[in-house]
User: What shape does this take?
Amino acid sequence: MAWLVTGGAGYIGSHVVRAFLAEGIDVVVLDDLSSGHAEFVPAGVPFVQGTLLDTALLTKTFAEYPISGVVHVAGFKYAGVSVTRPLHTYEQNVTATALLLAAMQEAGVGRIVFSSSAAVYGTPFTDLVTEETAKSPESPYGESKLIGEWLLRDQAVAAGLAHTSLRYFNVVGSGSAELRDTSPHNLFPMVFEALIEGRTPRINGNDYKTEDGTCVRDYIHVADLAISHVAAARRLDAGDSIAPVYNLGSGDGVSVGEIMSTVAAVTGIPFTPVIGPRRTGDPDRIVASGEMAARDLDWKMRHTLEDMVRSAWESRQAAAS
Assistant: This one.
């Protein structure tokens, strides 16, 4: 039997694939390559290129491979862009998830691990987010992820679906030199590209109520995240009772200023960030507790901030060589 990883050619999905393989679990990848890369899929892993909106392809994939569960990572992940492309976001994240669940039910596949997002919380009134923190998404992206969780919840009632959703903030680093974050909207790639092009990275505001005046956020290593996806899949395979949602959080976070200092030290490119105005709505500090996931899903911060920056920088350099 194998697990289907949707979005398995992307940055996070490709790490999930490798985490499954490291545990001796077979995988099948489905990805439309809208943001993924075919070369991220390991040799020998079945790769189905196409979209979740193609119901015929979904039916064919479940019929062709012995799939016992799904890790659903695929989706349109750009919160800022989702504000100007709401219909596209809902199509990719809500319609596609509903079609996937329908295909799973038709094929008799009853287990799913959903890659959700801490964007479901919006701007919480607490600086330490737990699974019980009120959900108030502030973008179509965050809303679409929350609706995805609702779809799993309702399908569990209707068809006995075994499921869990993993929420997290900022995923960084690399678990393998050939895998990297290529998003033009994420902090690490933006900082690296600025340095490579001779520009000075920018910080949005340094007058927050934090130790160094810059925002504090959760940054977690992608390989650590991948391990917990596999742990969740194993729990579902075993028929264990697990929570419907988990936060994969650091519990303490790091500041944007700390990240910039670490980038300068790791890359050997000295710079002083340009300080721009703060962005409207940015809270001083948002960090998630990972206590429940640590208890149930082998969640832990195995990498330091320096590890995260160094691995990400090495993967970016490998891409250029």
User: Anything to note?
Assistant: Residues 2-171+220-247 form a domain with the Rossmann fold fold (CATH 3.40.50.720). The mean pLDDT is 95.
